[in-house]
Automatic annotation (TrEMBL):
PROSITE patterns linked to this entry: ADH_SHORT
Protein's name according to its UniProt entry: Glucose 1-dehydrogenase
SUPFAM superfamilies: NAD(P)-binding Rossmann-fold domains
Keyword Oxidoreductase included in the entry's annotation: yes
PANTHER family: 3-OXOACYL-[ACYL-CARRIER-PROTEIN] REDUCTASE, SHORT-CHAIN DEHYDROGENASES/REDUCTASES FAMILY MEMBER
Domain of life from the UniProt record: Bacteria
UniProt entry keywords in alphabetical sequence: Oxidoreductase
Family: Belongs to the short-chain dehydrogenases/reductases (SDR) family.
Organism: Paralimibaculum aggregatum
């Protein structure tokens, strides 16, 4: 039940959760292509881990997604897995939200996830199948003040995951998602380390925020052969956060 020798493309790999998971997959013996816009950060990652190949891509640009997925498949000699993780957050009251901010969140977190999944699934379907794991969020199931676009985009990722799983099973492509609870990274560290963020700890039964390493084993299950009969599922990894209404 191992990922050894698997060929896996990880998006959003220039920082935070994606960078951590790219390194963790490489340590488990996978060949990894690491995608994001910041080429320098990707080069730094590849410099310390020779099993990682950097691939520059912008998930909001269809041409960049096509060439990025093709470059990843070429560098790895095919694609067995996709960790479809690139995402952004925008925090602010919905009444004040500008049209451009709404569009940017949806374009990155929902349309970007679809674009990369479609391009990767086309490669996988040609080559006997594969496994896709999207990054959703606990906010895909719950609500929060100031996160309307983000939460809507992640709820859509949960539903997209089910629909793609239904359509692509016949091509041998499984599609699942992880729904992490709050993990301090570039996307939210300022908020989580502040007073309001710390107050949220009381809503997490396990009384701590997540760590990127909490996602490693769940990812391995969904991505690898251990999850061979699992598709269409979104697995919360949240210290019990969803046991309470968000
Ligand atoms: P980071 O900000 O550290 O990472 C986000 C990653 O996405 C970066 O590598 C960034 O790279 C990449 N990215 C953003 N926009 C684009 C784009 N247009 N094209 C390509 N890559 C892009 O945040 P996290 O690691 O926390 O977030 C990773 C994922 O986890 C996101 O989907 C987030 O929504 C999700 N998540 C995070 C939680 C948390 O508490 N941290 C909780 C639940 C879900 P670059 O800027 O170089 O392009």
């Amino acid at each position: 039940m191992s990922l050894r020798s698997c060929k896996i493309f990880v998006t959003g790999a220039s920082s935070g959760i994606g960078a951590h998971l790219a390194r963790a997959l490489a340590r488990r013996g996978a060949a990894v292509a690491a995608g994001a816009r910041r080429a320098e950060a990707l080069a730094d990652l590849a410099a310390v881990e020779p099993r990682i190949t950097p691939v520059k891509l912008d998930v909001t640009d269809p041409g960049s997604v096509r060439s990025g997925v093709a470059a990843a498949a070429e560098a790895l000699g095919g694609l067995d897995g996709l960790v479809n993780n690139a995402g952004i957050a925008w925090g602010g009251r919905a009444l004040d939200m500008a049209e451009d901010d709404w569009a940017r969140v949806i374009d990155t977190n929902l349309s970007g996830v679809f674009r990369v999944a479609q391009a990767a699934a086309r490669v996988m379907a040609e080559d006997g199948g594969g496994s896709i794991v999207n990054t959703a969020s606990v906010l895909g199931f719950g609500t929060g003040t100031g996160v309307a676009a983000y939460a809507a985009s992640k709820a859509a990722v949960v539903h997209l995951t089910r629909n793609l799983a239904l359509e692509w099973a016949r091509h041998g492509v499984r599609v699942n998602a992880l729904a992490p609870g709050y993990i301090p990274t570039e996307i939210n560290r300022g908020f989580l380390e502040g007073e309001a963020g710390q107050a949220m700890l009381k809503d997490i039964p396990m009384r701590r925020f997540g760590r990127p390493e909490d996602l490693e084993a769940p990812l391995e299950l969904l991505l690898g052969p251990g999850g061979a009969y699992i598709t269409g599922v979104t697995l919360p990894v949240d210290g019990g956060h969803l046991c309470r209404p968000l």
